[in-house]
Amino acid sequence: MGRRGPAGKPTVLRLLDGDRADRINTNEPVPIAELPVCPDDASPEVREIWDYTVEHLDAMGIAKAADRDALFCYCQAVVVHHKASLLLSQSPVLIKGTMGGLVRNPALSIQRDAAYTVRQFAQEFGLTPSARSRVTAETDDDAGDGNPFAGIG
Fold first, then answer.
1. In this model, does residue 1 exceed pLDDT 70?
2. Which of 18, 66, 79, 151 could form an S-S bond across to 31 if both were Cys, CB 3.0 to 4.6 Å?
């Protein structure tokens, strides 16, 4: 089951907005401020998507080593979507089935599933316009000692 309601507000914004004390996570984990490293067994296609995505996440200030595995899944899904889309561009949407009738090309399901996975991860990483409007990134001024509450009040 998916999450209910709007996405949670970052702790820093909760403090600034004067939210109720019982809604503020004072033990929010702070990830290591290192870029994620692509796994060695990544295919060249996945590595290309990885490099592109990490570059953009780094520019937004949200690339963290702790996100490596989720980012790897995202990159793999992008590659699968590209391959399924290429296959569909070269073949019909309906193909002859085992009983002789027309059936949906199985690549459609692969493409759809990969697109869903890409969208889910893209929203988590702030890679869609609507997701970017909900993500707050740490600036160099905020980095300090890794304390998410540094510079607040």
1. no
2. 66
